[in-house]
Amino acid sequence: MATIEHNSEEAMEFINAYAAKVRSHLSDLDPSVANDISAGLESDLGESLSERGPDIVDPAQVFGSPAHYANELRTSAGLPALIAVEPGGPGKSDKSSTVTSRIRQNRRARWLWAIIPAILIATYALLWPFTWALGGGNELLTFGIPIMLGIVGIIAACRWAVKGASKYGATEGAPGESKVRGNWDAAWSPITSTPSWARLRELGTELQAVWWVLRGWIIGAFLGLLFGGRGGLLPSNLATFLLILLLIAVSVQWGRGQWRHWGWVATAAKAMSAIALILVVPLYALNAANSRDWRSQSGNQWQAGWNAGYGAGLNDGSSATTSDEGLWQDGNQIRNIFAFDADGEPIPAVQLFDQNGLPIFTQRFLPDSRSISDSHPWSVNQDPSWFGWARRNTAGQPVWNAYPLLRVNTGNATDWQLLPGYFDNDGCAGVWANPTGEDEVCGMVWGDWLLDDNGQLSLRPDHGPLLTPAWPFLRAAGVLSMDDTDITDTDTPNTNTAGDDPTAPGGTPEVSPIDSPTPTPPDSPTVTGTPTPLGTATPSPTGTDAPADAPAEVAPDDDAEVSE
Amino acid sequence: MDATQLLKGVLDAAVLAVISKGDGYGYDVIKRLQDSGLTEVGDASVYGTLRRLFTIGALTSYVVPSESGPHRKYYGITPLGLQMLSEQREVWQEFASAMCALLGTTHLILPTQIEKGE
Q1: B3-117, what's its fold?
Q2: Which one of A373, A414, A476, A496 is CB 3.0 to 4.6 Å from A344, fit for a cystine?
Q3: Are A283 and A276 in contact (CB under 8 A)?
């Protein structure tokens, strides 16, 4: 076998890459047969290229696509062609062979476009029920779509770059850029030259039609959405359905190359694929969101929206899980806080802060900025007709971490209401005018609550008295003072605390150990040196003040006190 | 009708005929086929055919160094190749005559008649 040396190493790289691809298209054959019909392929390619002139570098420029070349090798060896090949690949002029090879590349591109969305759709189809069951459907939307779009973008960019490189290589013979494709293909040849890969690609070719249908469907559904339909991938009305059918027909025809003699069709088909790929995920999400709406829809549109928002809150409450709304403990919402001091006496008002110095709110809303869309007035007592209202500071601002929250009557109202009969001259519906007639406020009321048309929540000017809610009990059990810092250091806190703090609550006049010397004064005469038995102590009846004096007598340095 | 389809069946004979008139390397054979009017012939088909004919012993091959460019692998015809060529010529002539009679034209008969006369 002769060693063919072509003009440059660069050209050799092209030839090797091209040959590798040709062999990959023969990989479904028995290896010995494939070897037979492709033996010396590089030499033949090099010879033929060098004969045609030094300017030609890319074999595809002359021979057409590797698939075409491989097919020719097959037929010349009396084997059936793997796929139908368009007539006149390499035999024609350079221009036509380039066009042919581009068409072949487009076919493969379309195949790739078919696999990617299939993976995306499968991923979403699998993920959605899971995340939905976990209550995290929104996260999928929030993070899933950007991630998926990112992946699609990267793939598209890669393909675009590779395609751009091959285009340059094919038409202008810029070897540097075309080399990218050669290297790319060569790098993958260990995988792409296996028989399994050939079978996979064959499968992909057959599945192309499925993608053509899907592509038309997606674009049709999107157009239907643009023209006022609702729903996502599934048509919601006859017009959308017909539109989808039409787009499927167009997509399939384009895919089959039926209308390819119009030059723009190939480009349009590619664009259609890309757009469909990008749209499929949002459309699918929209579909899922809609079906969810339909399930929960029980009244008009507004009601459905309210249900969606409020129902989530109800679910949070009933499912005994903590919520990010308000303050919760062990699955129960803490609506109000009642504080008692160490003696167990109720503290009329107390401000609470957490470990970071942030106010502790039992309700999430920001003072004076609440609107009906942001929050719902929570009951501060067991009685739902009494709702919370904040105390004011000296500047008149509400202090929502001052407890207990006050209560304001809501009467029998169960929702925001327009007060009938009050309308102002500005055309503002639902004017609430206070009885004095001085101020007019536009808004809605809920008992004594007033929600004005700026979304500001306040009290009606004629609101009822603000009351401290009923305390759960009048007095709590007392606790030890926090001065007892060593309270945890002893096993028997009773004796010790009594010694350190005689003022401790419940301090009955119990004799503590330190007082034990006091009984000794009756024995003081023993100091005089008469070791008489206990009964002989005659002074004991006389001295009620003896205990006080006795230590003084005992103490060796009490002379000064005595002298006084 | 597509000329490349027709060519598939007769490429062996065409290549053998070209080489029987003089040894040649791959691209040279392609050029000679194209010059004689078979413009649709493709690189891979010819190289593949040459390789296959060489494998079955219808062609021999030898390498000729080239001053410019790569060495060239020349092919020459063997007795087996000559025998194959004459067999295929007969088959083709019968086939072509039948087709010409069917299609009702004498235009394509001319080359074969010339060859017959030789």
Answers
A1: Arc Repressor Mutant, subunit A (1.10.10)
A2: A476
A3: no
